[in-house]
Amino acid sequence: MSNKPSVVMVGLGYIGLPTAALIASKSIKVTGVDIHQHVVDTINKGEIHIVEPDLDGLVHHVVKENLLTASTKPVEADVYLIAVPTPFKGDHEPDISFVESAIKAILPTLKEGALVIIESTSPVGTTEKMEQFIFSERPELMGKVFMAYCPERVLPGNIIYELEHNDRAIGGVNEASTDKAVNFYKHFVKGELHKTNSKTAEMCKLVENSSRDVQIAFANELSMICDEAGINVWELIRLANKHPRVNILQPGTGVGGHCIAVDPWFIVNKFPEKAKIIRAAREINNYKTEWVIEKIKSTALQFEIDNGKKPLIATMGLAFKPNIDDLRESPALNVVKTLMDSNLNILPVEPNIESYKDFEIQTVNEALKQADIVIYLVAHSEFISINTEVLTLDFCNVINK
Ligand SMILES: NC(=O)c1ccc[n+]([C@@H]2O[C@H](COP(=O)([O-])OP(=O)(O)OC[C@H]3O[C@@H](n4cnc5c(N)ncnc54)[C@H](O)[C@@H]3O)[C@@H](O)[C@H]2O)c1
């Protein structure tokens, strides 16, 4: 590999595009590849198709300088990075078909000495499996292509900074691959680069998100126990956390997003007998959302019995966590849709979104003017100063903030 390798980035979404742009900003030629023509066309105009602070300026600059070019077809390169989606299908089974398609697409362009790095969150063993696939299709490359896995742990909204400054775990299928991958990341990562093997690196990503899921499940379980016991869970957690070695997280409406609510299943699916806590955490966090729905339904029914009319219910928040507009796997959105399907009169509020395809979104003031009941589902900062006299259910500790 010359001092400045040529790079192909397959998948130009939330991870692939910022990574491609960052690498290109170090004067490295990058060809970004995506199956969607509109993504390719947008990027080649120096524009972006996703929302991420500071990304548009960076992409505009590297495209103008001819350092980043987008295409629907891969070209020959020294380094290939794969950042395509890895959702689950059926009964929480990981779907690695996008990774397989990406590998198939780069296969004809692979040359001796090339380095292939998978960044997509992947079940343990995926990198080795893809290596075997490459060698079975191109036997002349056996032992002559390097393969590694390097997971991403960026925070949406701060991706450009974190891509450059976060530590990385880098695992090759052999030591030569690990070393080659580490040398590549040195071109653009300032964080520490930790060497490991591919299976450990794959598991590392899954474990990071499972750890968060298990800790949130503990808080969510406590919230349901405390409700039955007549104890304020927020006060309880605040007091328990005064212990110098206790740090309980905050309960909420459930767990959402495309990482924490998805990745633990990759472990459960592969190790069903052993992954008991990880499975339980997923189930508890999903159950918490059902529990919230039942609480709201019984509160609405009681209102109807007491007042002789169905209540208008303002539901505050749709996103999967505070102060973002991301609805992927959002428990709050699930709550709102289920309540609407149950014929309750819902006034959905989400200050971070102007419109939604399935229903009309209300402003905070519009909803509060009409509501008989207010339900806090997401602790957006806009909700913290709300002062209302009507019956309120708070599932995310907005009231005491
Ligand atoms: N977004 C995050 O915060 C984040 C964080 C850590 C890890 N990840 C992981 O990174 C991976 C990518 O996530 P993302 O958020 O960037 O996804 P995304 O959906 O934003 O982008 C994926 C892109 O890949 C393209 N694509 C799909 N199949 C392709 C193929 N065969 N060839 C070329 N392009 C193809 C899609 O058109 C899309 O533009 C996933 O495995 C995800 O779990 C994401």
Question: Could you walk me through the main structural features you see in this protein, from its secondary elements to its overall organization?
Answer:
The protein is α/β, with parallel strands linked by helices. It is 41% helix and 14% strand. It has helices at 16-24, 37-44, 55-64, 97-106, 126-137, 159-165, 175-185, 198-229, 233-240, 263-270, 276-307, 331-341, 364-370, and strands at 7-10, 30-33, 68-71, 79-82, 88-89, 93-94, 115-118, 146-149, 168-172, 193-197, 312-316, 345-349, 373-376, 391-394. Strands 3-2-1-4-7-8-9-10 form an eight-stranded mixed sheet, with helices on both faces. Strands 12-11-13-14 form a four-stranded parallel sheet, with helices on both faces. The protein has a two-stranded antiparallel ribbon with strand order 5-6. Helix 1 links the parallel strand 1 (7-10) and strand 2 (30-33). Helix 8 (198-229) packs across helix 10 (263-270), helix 8 (198-229) runs parallel beside helix 11 (276-307) and helix 11 (276-307) crosses helix 12 (331-341). The longest helix has 32 residues, at 198-229. It starts with 6 loop residues before the first strand and ends in a 7-residue tail after the last strand. The model has no long low-confidence stretch (mean pLDDT 96). The structure holds nicotinamide-adenine-dinucleotide.
